[in-house]
Amino acid sequence: MAANGAKVNLQQKYGKFTDRWSAKILAQINEMQLKAVKIKGEFVWHSHPETDEMFLVHKGRMVMRLRDGDVTLDAGELYVVPRGVEHCPFAEEECEVLLLEPVGTANTGDAGGARTVEPEWI
Amino acid sequence: MAANGAKVNLQQKYGKFTDRWSAKILAQINEMQLKAVKIKGEFVWHSHPETDEMFLVHKGRMVMRLRDGDVTLDAGELYVVPRGVEHCPFAEEECEVLLLEPVGTANTGDAGGARTVEPEWI
ipTM value of the model? Predict the structure, then answer.
């Protein structure tokens, strides 16, 4: 458990973990948390009925699969998934992503299931 | 005026403006807005009594002056200024920064004055 108070170096934080699809909390801004996650392969289709969710690619490439088409995101590109919109993140090779979402947002949203992970501070 | 809906390429967005200390809105996530700003020189000492504020350096180096010391931030480093904490951003050379703060947050906080700027979408 950590908290705000010191500066955060993204590269150093991504170097501290290897597990995928398990977001780590980097900072909290009011009720929102910025999280670091490594992804590879396909996640589960889900939505967050109560909240928007921002994905910002730090390194690599990911695809945000949406029911009406894919959005490819390279490093330095971001996309906001609006609340209630079904999405399924995918990455062919490992990709480092920053997530921004409210405290308590489940990674699997309304889908739940085995891939649900409780985030921890890093 | 723009809004969410398409992906945002940070480098492309920073290439669209040259004015400093005038944040441009890139995305909105619930009540929070992600903004791009270019800074050089010293801003004004101020605080935001109602909200935390995140600074993430995209390119260059900035110093967050705080009453109890400076925090130097290079590209890929972030810092959260807690609500109510006086701060004064500074950059010796032009620096590109991402800001995260609630809709309606004044750039000069409780200080007000001539350097107050209303942000626009870019």
Answer: 0.95
